Amino acid sequence: MRVEPRQPAMMGGTRTATPVEKPAVLAALARRAKRPLLVIGHRALVEGDGGSNAIDLLARIALKAGWPVVATGDTGPALAARGVEPALCITAMNLGNRLSDPTWPGVDGEGPHDVVFLAGLSYALEWTLLSGLRHGPADLVTVSLSPGYEPHASFSLPNLAWPAWRALIAEAFDLEEAA
Amino acid sequence: MKGIDIRIGEIASPLGRVRDLRVGIGRVGSGTWDESAGPTPCPSPAALRDWDRRLLARYRPFYMPLCDLCCLCTYGKCDLSGGKKGACGITMAAQQSRIVLLAACIGAATHTSHAHELVEYLVDRYGRTFSLDPGGLAVELRLPNVELVCGLRPETLADLETVLEYCDEQLVGLLAATHTGQEGDPIDFESKVFHAGMVDHVAMEVADVAQISALDFPRADPHAALVDLGLGTIDASKPVILVVGHNVPPAAAIIDYLASHGLEGTVEVTGICCTAIDMTRRSPAAKIVGPISWQLRYIRSGIPDLVVVDEQCVRADLSDEAARLGIPVIATSVKNCLGLPDRSGDPADALVDDLASGAVPGVLVLDPEKVGEVAVRVAVQRRPSRPARPAVDIAAAAAACGTCGACAGACPVESDLPTVMQAAKAGDATPLGALLETCVGCGRCEEACPQGIEIHGLMAAACDVCERFAMRTGRGPIQDVEIREVGGPLVLGEIPGVVAFVGCANYPEGGREIAEMVTEFAKRRFVVCTSGCAAMSAAMYRDEEGLTPYERFSGRFEAGGVVNVGSCVANAHISGAAIKIASIFAKRKLSGNYAEVADYVYNRVGAVGVAWGAMSQKAASIAAGFWRLGIPVVVGPQGAKYRRMLLGRSDHDEDWTVRDRRTGEEVYVGPVPEHLFIAAETKEEAMAIIAKLAMRPNDTSRGRSIKLTHYIDLHLRCYGRMPDDLHRFVRTRADIPTMQKDTLLPLLEARGWTEQPIPDPTLLPGEASR
């Protein structure tokens, strides 16, 4: 699997995200998160294959894991239709600004999030947002669930075709039915 | 102030009685203006630092570095990640703000240089004493940015030179601040970004007022001509000239040559980017091809017989593209010579012979009049031998595609190019052609393709649509009487805001979204302004009745109007309108009184800039000029690549107090406007943000109620639920939209909402505000 940015010019510095190529690694990241947050952007509404868009699987993750979800763009209604009521509807930039503030008490007021999972943002927007977050709180872990490798995340899926992405996500989150 | 200006009404001398004598030595610009100078005429980069810091205390930068390294000196590269400082001691935040300042300086310098060239040309052609007249009797306050910033009231073309000298001086100082070992504090860098933006608006105003005055563009005319836009408007049976860029003298000279030689109507003068708009301001017979993104596809169409380029946003490979089709090129700007030989001193006949025969691929001619003559003659001579557009076998060309995905990886809008290429290979080119709708025309797909397939060219070949649209050409400034009519309703909030769609064409989902947003806000009775490429994009779609927004809505600066001010430099009329509201409607003193006027605009004028396809450094400096004036700017998702946002924290109540000028007390007013610079992800999200950012502390309850109605409605459309932050924007029960009181009051009360006073708001300390 390739571990270079999906948009090859987007190398950002001396560190790059640890590629998550095995479902077990992703499952471990999810399991160890104490205050996780799942961010879902609007491209989840249109990206995917086989008549199923990414948002379907992402909503299932939220429901299965019980994670709070932040909807950016106009993703909120589609999530609600899938049984996921976003904890917060907010712009990606505004969310990034808050996540980079170590005193922000999170979407539920219970304290900062330790692991942020992101998917469905446009590649460049996610890439830019992650470049801000990686200079935020030192203990904030970011995990890109998008099918294009995001070098600015702490961990990122590699570049994947949709079937491979679907299979990896489904196995990591034990969503066999969706796979 | 430089030079001496002596005016004598009447004097008796041994030679006789002399009336209205004026003696000028050097250059001056104050004219007969009797307003005393305010506290900051021609401010230095530090003069408005206090005002900037008040804004930046609310809107703190959120940096997204793009690159962790600093590569600007030989100490480096330095890794600034993880809190590390560079060899010079600079931090990541300072480095990012430094890069932002560099971008703003590039943008402002570009407009300043543009203005210099324009003024110099116009002075040569029309004389130093040519009077400035951007709006006839309808515009008494002719250069509001210049008057506000410089404390000068220019009257002639030569007076503008003094203003530009101020811009030069400031930009040199700002650029110097980016040198290693100068500024190290990010907020001081940001303040200088604001300064560059303010200077940019001064330079833009100089440029546009000069060209309106001397080239007889529409003068503050809400009924400026509806002009042709789109490939379908071009009669390719005639000789066709393409002009690309921003600085209009060569294009104007082409138009003038045609007129002076009785050739009007015999040659198609077509344009891309801002020069196109300004050509149609000179002559409504000129035709606009489209925004910046149309360069490749139009040149490759083979229609132009000649390409003339001036400056800014011209593709660096334009001459290569033209050469492939044997289309001669004339470069006309010292800033964009294209590697061509300088033939400015050669006779026109020799240039025509060489270009028309193909003996040379192009020439540099730094003489607009000569360009005018040569361009027309070359196009006329070349037309009979223009080769027919070669047929493109799309399926055969696509057959080489190996579906490697490199094109998709290079596409800034993430088009699914491999899939449509496969369809094209199988004989269905329709999906490939459909992608042209959202294509930004960058050509990166072709650069990435290992097979060398001309993917963008195939797209254009697969989408052979020649549509015709109508765009109201740039009208120039806003009339004083229009300001008087809307000033009250705007300041009170009863007109819900001014939304300005400006900037480049790096759209996330194509230009249609601009037209849709323009229409949405015009229908909501906002005052909608447009300029530059966004103004063109707004014209390229029709409603269900077949009308473009310019045909559907009035061109007046009024509720529900769609006001195309003009090209990029005409953006100064949008900031100028906000300044005029403070001056004409509210009677605030202008001359060198920046902080007070900005404070007025910030707290009272619900204006929002939208650069949905912002791409350039000029877009950055234009935005910065709005920021310093307290006007927030929304960009599209690609705008995040400007690498920093200026974001408020609505959850920090302590950030949102103002001083009530009536009582002197600090009063909570809520996060209005919540952000100064923010990228939105989708059109729907942008519209909800725009409606929110139009709120101001000074809104009356009726005004706030109207604004909340729009915010709630657009928020519901985007997010499918009521805003979480509504309680922060409702000050009194009277603010709540009447029809929604029963629904909203319980929601507010559940949030612990209590009524707040509506102050007479200012951010300035007591002694600095009236």
Task: Provide keyphrases for this structure.
heterodimer; A: alpha/beta; 7-stranded parallel β-sheet; two-stranded antiparallel sheet; globular; B: 770 residues; alpha/beta; 8-stranded mixed β-sheet; 27 helices; 23 strands; 13% strand
Number of helical stretches of at least 4 residues of chain B: 27
Class from helix and strand fractions of chain B: alpha/beta
Beta content of chain B comes to: 5-15%
| Order of helical and strand elements of chain A | EHEEEHEHEHEHEEH
Q: From the structure provided, what is the oligomeric state, counting identical versus distinct chains?
A: heterodimer
- Cα end-to-end separation of chain A: 20 Å
Please tally the β strands of chain A and state the result. 9
Description:
The complex is a heterodimer of chains A (179) and B (770). In chain A, helix 3 (76-81) links the parallel strand 5 and strand 6 (88-89). The model of chain A has no long low-confidence stretch (mean pLDDT 92). Chain A has 179 residues and is an alpha/beta fold. Chain A has 6 helices and 9 strands, in the order βαβββαβαβαβαββα. Chain A has a 7-stranded parallel sheet, sandwiched between helices. Chain A has helices at residues 23-32, 54-65, 76-81, 92-99, 123-133, 162-172; strands spanning 18-19, 36-40, 48-49, 52-53, 69-71, 88-89, 115-119, 141-144, 155-156. In chain A, 54% of the residues are buried. In chain B, 41% of the residues lie in helices and 13% in strands. In chain B, strand 11, helix 10 (348-357) and strand 12 form a beta-alpha-beta unit. The longest helix of chain B is centred in the N-terminal third of the chain and has 35 residues, at 92-126. The chains are: A alpha/beta (179), B alpha/beta (770). Chain A binds chain B through residues 6-9, 12-15, 41-43, 71-74, 76-77, 80, 88-89, 91-94, 96-98, 100-101, 104, 121-125, 128-129, 131-132, 134-135, 138, and chain B through 60, 62-69, 79, 81-83, 92, 409-410, 412, 414, 448, 508, 637-638, 640-641, 643, 645, 647, 649, 651, 675, 678-682, 684-685, 689, 718-721, 724.
